[in-house]
Amino acid sequence: MNLVLSIIGDKRNLRIINALIFDDLHEFRDFLTIQKNLSTSILTNRLKKMLDQDIFWVIQHPDSKKRKLYYLTEKWMWLIDVLVEIRLRNQTISNDDRKNLIDKIRRKVLEWNRINIYT
Questions:
Q1: DSSP string over 82-105
Q2: CA 26, 32, 33, 36 torsion: positive or negative?
Q3: Closest CA to 38 of 27, 53, 28, 26
Q4: Which residue has the higher pLDDT, 39 or 8?
Q5: Considering Cα of 44, then 46, then 47, then 51, what sign does the dihedral take?
Q6: Computed from CA positions of residues 30, 112, 114, 81, in that sequence, does the dihedral angle turn out positive or negative?
Q7: How far is CA 117 from the centre of its chain?
Q8: How is the chain split into domains, by residue range?
Q9: Using an 8 Å Cβ cutoff, are 58 and 73 in contact?
Q10: pLDDT over 70 for what percent of the chain?
Q11: Confidence of residue 89 (pLDDT cuts 50, 70, 90)
Q12: How far apart are CA 58 and CA 47, in angstroms?
């Protein structure tokens, strides 16, 4: 738990991860728009840290050599489970529905990876 908190442990990093998983945002400029008062240099440092920890990997955008796409690595797919649980913390939902929601989001993230990385 301490390792996870030391890597993610900041609400801004968590917002970036949330945006990637739930909002299908994958570009640097997307991450800037979801966070007020975040400079490009701070965002660059945050993304570098997450890249160094293998939370994200990056590929070149197919439409521009200047743009990059960030994606969640399979090693960190378990974050989906945790973030769904956080989002559902005050909701009454069956275990089957929780599992189905987690599976649906996981499939969506993996499908994005498959389409954009492995093709």
A1: HHHHHHTTTS---HHHHHHHHHHH
A2: positive
A3: 28
A4: 39
A5: positive
A6: positive
A7: 15
A8: 2-117
A9: no
A10: 92
A11: confident
A12: 10
